[in-house]
């Protein structure tokens, strides 16, 4: 069984997301359906932890289907989202003779997706791009067309908007993903519920164990809903002028925690889990009902995600990191705040003191 | 007096080109008219040969107008169109605190335009971009939104389509441009005539001396017409699907000559001057009237542009360089061929032998 979802962005750039177990087997049929040309070589970009599991199989399938297939393997981890590794991908594209009709394929998580996507956006000023996500978190990065690499001074600062031709989400690939990565990815799934869909939040609460155990039907439903919600938001605001900011629930505090932990101690999904609890605390502080906080926290705990800030992290360092965040426009503090479960608001002028109190409280959460 | 031209690309991305002597003085007024925001810093990108002439003045004008202005100076020359220098521009943008509402300004020729343009396209996934061209050739690069840097294996291979907010073409700045650069730039002006407008070709023939002497009225007319023709072509084919290829008249042979000369001996405009004579030879070889060749050659000679290939250049090396050119789709040779003066056609399947003969003949031209 295969679920299909369409990301709607106006005729020329809308694209399908296919979700299902073992649908990698159908890749040639899907490529054909989408008109990926055979005359020009394909380039698979993947990382050294994903490659041993799936690279040969994907290559074999595509070759059997009549495609010429090249690949480049980058080191696993965030440090591959750099201009140096980007140049390595472009070199591979040039040496492999990729032309304007070629397609660059991301086989991996969000890191490989962002890197391969920016390469596809820039090579010859833009070639086709296909995403084959292999992490739970990548349900998030496969919708929206945001692709980027990092600069040593800032994350995701060098990038483009480049929509994929399609996303082929084979949920069987998630079986090899480390458990902690599964949990962290589910944090973004829950986030999509919290910003948009109370019913889906309730469903997540009831199916946390199935999701953590990668039970396929539940997993596919969750990824489908996560992609659906993100794509609804994105298609209403493709170039990030306003609405899209709701996707940053938990990210203001989350990004600061990641930075202070030097991207070592906390995974992104773990950091935003804590950040979502923080946003709920601020919400209550602003006068919203207490259950927003208690339910958010309970839900994230069901997914065995962290809900408190490790004590050794310095409050002022976290505050400083937030001040550097892009989301602070001209000095004022902007936050995405839950107005209810499944509903958020963007609020400006949040007093820095409230945020500081929230950080302190997050250090005391159990 | 100021000429104004609009590049039409659908509401959101159309932009004006202003052409006139000393219109740099009006920059603040023009920025205001276009709504360039004052709250966010501007970054001027320029090169070390242009900076001494115009950087202080431009900075002073903008600061007097209430803008916060930063700059980064890159080494003059094609080698600055690299990922390394691109990273330098991004670093300057980050260190200067540029945000999403900032504007990157290219002050210089096509090199600075392409580099600053790609930086503006990529920084935070796209910020505003303004072009202040200071070469004749840059009339070409300021229309069309093509921005790029080079890879050591291929020119312009890493790039984007990113339209400027506006182009402010102060023709007084051309007075400091070396004469050889003036001539090379006029080669592209003539090219725009040859592909599109017989009358303008005739006008160019009559005004070559005024143009070479930078007589202002003639110069402004020529740049206006060059921009107008390019913008007509581009607005009909923004993403380069077909028509836009006519702009490559003279470029297939021209690029090969530049490559064989290792980008040392011939300026781009000089190389395409020779290439345009080559295209005219092929045209006659295909059965078109002889005057296409004689008039093309005479016109280019009036501009003291080269019309023959330096004898020491190896024919086979030139042929090989052409085979590497992007314009050869799947092995067949595609050429832009004049069908008449002011009119071109795109022809596929040109026998390699005809091209070889043409190269040989170009070595014998006087
Ligand atoms: N573009 C967007 O809109 C967007 C949205 C969210 C996140 N992101 C980006 O995504 C990145 C994080 O994504 P991620 O969490 O997927 O990280 P990731 O790509 O680094 O994957 C996490 C780890 O799991 C390994 N892995 C991946 N798939 C595997 C599999 N099936 N089996 C075994 N190991 C596997 C990887 O090698 C890596 O070590 C960040 O760089 C973030 O900025 C982008
Ligand atoms: N984007 C496009 O559509 C497009 C079109 C055509 C060419 N280009 C690119 O443009 C570049 C060539 O442009 P160019 O010929 O303007 O080269 P350039 O920018 O290198 O300028 C030529 C030389 O003149 C100097 N100079 C520039 N303005 C001056 C002035 N007013 N006074 C004194 N010196 C001055 C520069 O320092 C440089 O040494 C190439 O990289 C080419 O790929 C791009
Ligand atoms: Zn996130
Ligand atoms: Zn040119």
Automatic annotation (TrEMBL), chains A, B:
Residues the entry annotates as binding NAD(+): 110-114, 134-135, 146, 155
Keyword Metal-binding tagged: yes
Record flagged with keyword Ligase: no
Subcellular location: Cytoplasm
Manner of cofactor binding, per the entry note: Binds 1 divalent metal cation per subunit. Can use either Co(2+) or Zn(2+).
Cofactor: NAD(+); Co(2+); Zn(2+)
CDD domains: DHQS
Protein name: 3-dehydroquinate synthase
Organism of provenance: Ferviditalea candida
């Amino acid at each position: 069984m295969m679920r299909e979802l369409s990301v709607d962005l106006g005729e020329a750039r809308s694209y399908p997301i296919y979700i299902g177990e073992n649908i990698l087997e159908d890749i040639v049929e899907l490529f054909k359906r989408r008109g990926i040309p055979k005359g020009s070589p394909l380039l698979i970009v993947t990382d050294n932890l994903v490659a041993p599991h799936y690279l040969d199989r994907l290559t074999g399938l595509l070759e059997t289907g009549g495609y010429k297939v090249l690949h480049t393997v980058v080191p696993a981890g965030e440090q591959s989202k750099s201009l140096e590794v980007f140049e390595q991908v472009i070199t591979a594209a040039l040496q492999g003779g990729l032309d304007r009709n070629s397609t660059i394929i991301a086989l991996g998580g969000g890191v490989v997706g962002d890197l391969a996507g920016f390469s596809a956006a820039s090579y010859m000023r833009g070639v086709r791009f296909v995403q084959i996500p292999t992490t739970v978190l990548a349900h998030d990065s496969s919708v929206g067309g945001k692709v980027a690499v990092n600069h040593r001074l800032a994350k995701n600062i060098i990038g483009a908007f480049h929509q994929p031709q399609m996303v082929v989400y084979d949920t069987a690939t998630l079986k090899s993903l480390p458990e902690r990565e599964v949990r962290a990815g589910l944090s973004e799934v829950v986030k999509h519920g919290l910003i948009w869909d109370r019913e889906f939040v309730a469903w997540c609460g009831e199916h946390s164990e199935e999701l953590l155990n990668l039970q396929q039907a539940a997993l596919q439903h969750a990824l489908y809903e996560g992609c659906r919600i993100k794509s609804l938001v994105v298609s209403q605001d493709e170039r990030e002028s306003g609405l899209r900011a709701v996707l940053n629930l938990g990210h203001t505090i989350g990004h600061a925690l990641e930075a202070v932990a030097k991207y070592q101690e906390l995974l992104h999904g773990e950091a935003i889990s804590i950040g979502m609890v923080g946003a709920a605390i601020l919400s209550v502080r602003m006068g919203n009902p207490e259950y927003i906080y208690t339910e958010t926290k309970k839900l994230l705990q069901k997914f065995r995600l962290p809900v408190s800030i490790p004590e050794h992290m310095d409050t002022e360092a976290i505050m400083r990191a937030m001040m550097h965040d892009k989301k602070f426009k001209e000095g004022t503090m902007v936050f995405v705040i839950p107005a209810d479960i499944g509903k958020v608001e963007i609020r400006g002028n949040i007093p820095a003191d409230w945020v500081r109190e929230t950080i302190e409280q997050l250090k005391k959460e159990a």
